[in-house]
Write a structure and sequence with these properties.
five-stranded mixed sheet; 4 helices; about 35% strand; elongated
Amino acid sequence: MADSNFIEQSKVHFKEGETIFTRGEMGQQMFVILTGKVRLYVGEEAKGEWAEEFGKGDFFGEGSLLEALPRALTAVAMEDSDLIAISRGTFLKMIKQNPEVAVKMMQRMAQRNREMSDKLEENLTKSQKMKTAQPVAQLVSVLTGKKYPILAHGSLVGRYDPTTGVHPDVDLTTEDHNLSVSRRHARILCEHGRYFLLEEPGVANGTYVKGDRIQPGDARELAPGDRVGFGMVVLFFEKA
């Protein structure tokens, strides 16, 4: 789709946690991922519900080349990422030079737009239901009694990182006065109504279920009433 000179001239770099574009702003470029990972969030911040995640070879933001409409999602680099930025003018030149590639690309765009629109509508509906309904599962702080809902597709547990601006889905910053929780501490995965706790790589202060430290790579199933520890922060796991 592009030669090496074009790639070097159009390459842009984003650090982990850096926002590529924000929901509501006018878009003028699409992006192709050379290296790294990008997540599209439903809201204006890098937290909560997200619509899709892309890796090497994927592209996103293509709607801005077809219509002058505000961005529907917020794009955030989940790790250090190199992207190719393609403007509308460059895209039109590509169409003229290689119509066959352009047709295939537009077919993929149309398919992706349909899929993303369906997912966005589904996520918005889920978000609205969560405001009025009891969450299916949640963590409850032993110290404060605060409830942390677990998202349907799973949740990242950790502490807010002021350097990158990334919030985990379950943000234990206010609970963690001793700074014992890692920025990316653990994940709670949901599969067919069952919940599993998996520690993230490089965690120093441990992850515990009923007082037992789980080993890296060990997905421990959670049962209602289980006492769960992230470093020195202790919560109970509950299911509705």
